[in-house]
Structure formats: C-alpha cells, structure tokens
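Sorry to interrupt, but I need a hand with the structure work. It will help me judge whether the discrete encoding reads sensibly. Write everything out right here, beneath this request:
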Amino acid sequence: MTKGTKASSDRVFIQIQVDQERKTKFANKVRSQGKTITDILISWIDDYIDESEKIDVTDLKKRIEALERKSHQQDSVIMGELSA
C-alpha cells in the first residue's frame, strides 16, 4: 500500500463546513488536476503530520548567514595578518 491509503474498513470520515462557492472552486480545481478532494486532503494531512520532520528553512537561512558572517570575519583577520 502507498502512503495514505488503507483498506476501506479502516477508514473514518472527517467533515468540515465551508461555503458553497469555496467548495465549488476547490472541487473544480482538484478535478482539473485529475485528483479527488480526498486525495488532496489526505496529502495535506500527511504533510501536516510530517511537519516535525521537515527542515525549518528560515532557521537554516539564519544559520548560514551566521556562518557567512563568521567566515568574513576570519577572512578579515587573515588578510590583516598577511598585510602586516
């Protein structure tokens, strides 16, 4: 079985309330992509569950910037030593 699929006897239903216009737009977009509403919602749920395993891109960017600053500082020190 692939991720997110189970035997139908193991499935439960989740209901949400949305306005008709939103539901229609969503259904039309999903259908235009050759998918079902269930496919999309299961994918979103799986992504949400797996959030804790994902890399925080913002944190990574901050860490890289800190390393770059440190590298530039070390370069400045080395260049100062070379010119002395």
Notes: Residues 57-83 form the longest helix (27 residues). The chain has a mean pLDDT of 84.
